[in-house]
Amino acid sequence: MSEMICQRILLKLSGEALMGQGNFGIDPNVISRLASDIKELVDAGMQVGVVIGGGNIFRGEGLARSGIDRVSGDHMGMLATVMNSMAMQDALQKTGVKARTLSAIKMEQVCDFYVRRNAVQHLEDGEVVILAGGTGNPYFTTDSAASLRAVEIGAQLMIKATKVDGVYSADPVTNPEAVFYPRLSYDQALAEGLKVMDATSIVLCRDNDMPLRVMNINEPGALMRLLQGEDVGSLVESGDGNDR
Ligand code: UDP
């Protein structure tokens, strides 16, 4: 097996990545395929932290639009991320990978509480660590939680898994003129308002020199190829970007 480009990563999966063709909840086939992709990395000796969103179940902003108090809605969204994390933990364990959910919100009957040094220890012990409950605070997203955790656990790379091949100048699904950016800077992503992640999460990566890969999680084998050094998706990093 060829050498991996780094040893510890933080993988961000949106809740929608678990939905498959559906429009709510979790598709068991999709989650077990994602678990197999992660197992491949673990088998290759990688330490993998995972942050999963909750958008396949609840988002605070959407709930607020339908009349639920924003903070309550955000709490519901964070609890949704715990549900997704439990499902991923189960799927990983079924593939024979040791996995542990650590939540930013205390719920001791369900999973452990997130403490950075424990997370790092579990990673060093070869367990996949699923970081649930977002940041534990309303008005944030799980992209921000992913950037924060990536920096905290000392990941060498953060990977944002999406449904498209990387970063484009516009939504490639609706705009055929959209230009693909193989490489760009954090500041370019912010200045052009590119749909990479929200500004808070980009700034956290930028200020802490956390390189970010945006890639298509539905492309078979792409995750492994990326970590074996192939130029998969888009790379967001320091510098002047503009390498279109
Ligand atoms: N959320 C929050 N604080 C956090 C992370 C998430 O309040 O630190 C809530 C927020 O309501 C968000 C929801 O949880 O909409 C689900 O997360 P997100 O929308 O980031 O999920 P994704 O789009 O990745 O599926």
From TrEMBL:
Pathway: Pyrimidine metabolism; CTP biosynthesis via de novo pathway; UDP from UMP (UMPK route): step 1/1. Its EC number is 2.7.4.22. Keywords: ATP-binding, Cytoplasm, Kinase, Nucleotide-binding, Pyrimidine biosynthesis, Transferase. Its main location: cytoplasm. It catalyses: UMP + ATP = UDP + ADP. It comes from the Bacteria. GO terms for biological process: 'de novo' CTP biosynthetic process; UDP biosynthetic process. ATP binds at K12, L13, S14, G15, G55, R59, T162, Y168, D171. GO terms for cellular component: cytosol. It is found in: Cytoplasm. UMP binds at G54, D74, T135, G136, N137, P138, Y139, F140, T141, T142. Catalyzes the reversible phosphorylation of UMP to UDP. NCBIfam families: pyrH_bact. Belongs to the UMP kinase family. This is Uridylate kinase. The gene is pyrH.
